[in-house]
Amino acid sequence: MRVLKFGGTSVANADNIKLVLAIIAQKAEKEPLAVVVSALSKVTDLLQLAASKAAQNDESFRDIVLEIEKKHLDTLKQLIPVSEQSALLSHIKRIINHLETLLDGCFLLGELSPRTSDTILSFGELLSSFIIAEALKQKLKNTNYKDSRELIKTNAVFGKATVNFELSNALIQNYFENNDAQVVLLPGFIAATEDGITTTLGRGGSDYTAAIFAGALSVDELEIWTDVNGMYTANPKLVKQAQPIATISYQEAMELSHFGAKVLYPPTIQPVLQKNIPIWIKNTFEPQAEGTLISNSVAANGTPVKGISHIDNITLITLEGSGMIGVAGSSKRLFEVLSNEKINVIFITQASSEHSICIGIQNSDAETAEIAINKAFEIEIAQNKVEPCIVEKNLCIIALVGENMKNHQGLSGRMFSTLGKNNVNIRAIAQGASERNISVVINERDVKKALNTLHENFFEENTKQLNLFVMGVGNVGEKFMEQIHQQKKFLKENLKINLRVVAVSNSKKMYFDEEGMSLKDWPSLLVNGEVSNAEAFVSRVKELNLRNSIFVDITANEKVAQLYEHFLKQNVAVVTCNKIACSSAYANYQNLKNLSRKYNAPFLFETNVGAGLPIIDTVKNLIASGDKVHKIQAVLSGSLNFIFNNFNENNPFDEVVKEAGIQGFTEPDPKIDLSGVDVARKILILIRESGYQMEIEDIENLSFLPEECMNTTNNDDFFKSLVTHASHFQQLLKEANEKEARLKFVAQFENGKANVGLQCIAKDHPFYNLEGKDNIVLFYTDRYVDQPLLIKGAGAGAAVTASGIFADVIRIGNV
Ligand code: ADP
Ligand code: ASP
Ligand code: MG
């Protein structure tokens, strides 16, 4: 024999019930079955709502009754042939009338006792089991219906009654011994006292009903049919990557369900555990899926962590004070108070000094607990020996569960550091003596992030999901998106990095997709996105609170640079090719670096100097390994290099500048490049990264632009002035040619001083042969004395800049 239980979603409507009937019919061919069913999905919630409305004199409970009635009548009509409906529909209407009478009573009295509440809630299972039994009889004549209240007897603690197993087991065995039906259909969740008053087994209690029958009848197996493919490594509704667990021990399953894995009602294990009856969790909507087997055997070499679960709506109450130390029985008193108030304690930690004790309870119990505890310790509080208890609401418990955790060191460290890296603040920690469970209390707003990041760390071979928020999708930005699109598969397969772009924005529009947008269709999604707004963008990133969030700035905008601070404080990493922040006031640059350290949020800007060339990373490594930079000489402007490499007698200066712009080698405002400001910013950043404190004003700018060109206020005027001063530029060229030298715009730093300016570079200098838009940097350090460390290569262009940004993102992925 075997017991099957079908949950609320499995019996939500006629279509689903048909699937259930098919499963029952198939199984009944092989052996007799006891089938337990829940109420139709959401019906118990509706009953509870109707009851509380009625008790508050709110007439709208009648609408809810109508809704419940319609739901059941509709379901029945779709399952039973018309010719046989009438008597059954009348029966349902009678049940509904009875329900309405009870609710009327609550309405008139303005009251809802726990006893009445249980009777009202029982209607969900009474209705569902009646309909399903009738529908099943259409298929299997040899079906019996039995009201579980006649078989499961409990005490009179309404709401969550305790089962009298001795009596119930005897009644159940007796009934089944004298029954030869192929299938007995029974309502879950409901029971009765010995006097026959209806009780319930607690919300979600149909699983328990099924286990009680399974235990009493010593069946071969218990099957819990629900709406997911088994017990998962984490709640699949919150963690997309969660996987069904193939096999799990009773203890592990119990621990996971106690800590919130709703798929199994926690007391369910107990009646089957003693008899060693295996439980299968199966999916009604995918019956061929393997499901989860809960049994006595534990895989000896299984993964240390079996699953991660969580409980929301937790309040932490801390009681502390010198009066707690060494005073025998402080905790005993505390727990007594809570027990008297029937408050369930979910979580306990106590400092070894006994100076404080901290408990986790449900939010709904918080006020009662606070009042009761302060009252119980009022003398100590008056004497200042104990503080009034501290109450923190809206928290959540997250638990790692696994039988094999005790054989592995460092799991708790790994748990804490994974959460810490994502800026999830841990409020309290507890580890059971069985070492089957490590639980932490965190803020409710961090739950999804915490579950996902822990899941990633413990179950996904260290796959790391990176969530990108991209601002600026011009030349470079487009290339960046293209490169990600191209590399996504490779990164996932080879580096275990799962790159997702959650937001893109330009100056006009922004578009968010929490699940990561299509990397092909993003341009059209953006065009149809919302109007862009920096503040809204920042708060969306904060609200989404995704793990490993990275803000990618691909603009040259000062306002965007001002956002970094907000992101870093939210533990959102910043990757930027925008030089403004790092070349702004030293205090600001330093502040961003400090925030990055403090909030564990990387701040990377490799592309600020030399586009994709690994210049900043190299300086960082030199400094970190104890080297000291004394002198830097560099050609850092790909655009100026391109311009002076192409400028000659036949190619006028203004035309070359225009061409550089078209090819994307200059800033949108070319004057920033030609005036030397851009190069000054770059050398400043290198100087700062080398460990020196300097401001942009400290860098001498030996500009080669005539005053008039410098004073123009728009691009048109600027180009006109370049034409006007064509002879000035020709003169510069002539002087260089006469010396057999080439013009290069050089930045240098030595002895604490820095300057940028146009220089005639002689043939034997490493800068002489610098081609196209290349950059070159020479670092003279303690270790590189005679021969400088030289980095050379393409230093401008959309593709190389995009790949530099990409490299920074990957650096974060590899941390
Ligand atoms: P039923 O109505 O069939 O009793 P429940 O809603 O009580 O179903 O339980 C199934 C639900 O439990 C799933 O849909 C899922 O949202 C939730 N759940 C939470 N944690 C887990 C987990 N670790 N594995 C599977 N499901 C889980
Ligand atoms: N119908 C009850 C509830 O919703 C019992 C169950 O579904 O297991 O709590
Ligand atoms: Mg359930």
From TrEMBL:
Gene3D superfamilies on file: Acetylglutamate kinase-like, Aspartokinase, catalytic domain, Dihydrodipicolinate Reductase, domain 2, NAD(P)-binding Rossmann-like Domain, VC0802-like
Pfam families referenced in this protein's UniProt entry, alphabetically: AA_kinase (PF00696), ACT_9 (PF22468), Homoserine_dh (PF00742), NAD_binding_3 (PF03447)
GO terms, molecular function: aspartate kinase activity; homoserine dehydrogenase activity
PROSITE patterns for the chain: ACT, ASPARTOKINASE, HOMOSER_DHGENASE
Protein keywords: Amino-acid biosynthesis, ATP-binding, Kinase, Lysine biosynthesis, Metal-binding, Methionine biosynthesis, Multifunctional enzyme, NAD, NADP, Nucleotide-binding, Oxidoreductase, Sodium, Threonine biosynthesis, Transferase
ATP-binding is among the record's keywords: yes
Residue span(s) of domain ACT: 400-478
EC number, as in UniProt: 1.1.1.3, 2.7.2.4
Required cofactor names: a metal cation
Reactions that this protein is recorded to catalyse: L-homoserine + NADP(+) = L-aspartate 4-semialdehyde + NADPH + H(+); L-aspartate + ATP = 4-phospho-L-aspartate + ADP
Pathway linked to the protein: Amino-acid biosynthesis; L-threonine biosynthesis; L-threonine from L-aspartate: step 3/5; Amino-acid biosynthesis; L-lysine biosynthesis via DAP pathway; (S)-tetrahydrodipicolinate from L-aspartate: step 1/4; Amino-acid biosynthesis; L-threonine biosynthesis; L-threonine from L-aspartate: step 1/5; Amino-acid biosynthesis; L-methionine biosynthesis via de novo pathway; L-homoserine from L-aspartate: step 1/3
Protein family (similarity comment): In the N-terminal section; belongs to the aspartokinase family. In the C-terminal section; belongs to the homoserine dehydrogenase family.
Subunit structure: Homotetramer.
Function text: Bifunctional aspartate kinase and homoserine dehydrogenase that catalyzes the first and the third steps toward the synthesis of lysine, methionine and threonine from aspartate.
Protein name as catalogued: Bifunctional aspartate kinase/homoserine dehydrogenase I
Organism: Flavobacterium polysaccharolyticum
Upper taxonomic lineage: Bacteria, Pseudomonadati, Bacteroidota, Flavobacteriia, Flavobacteriales
Encoding gene (name): thrA
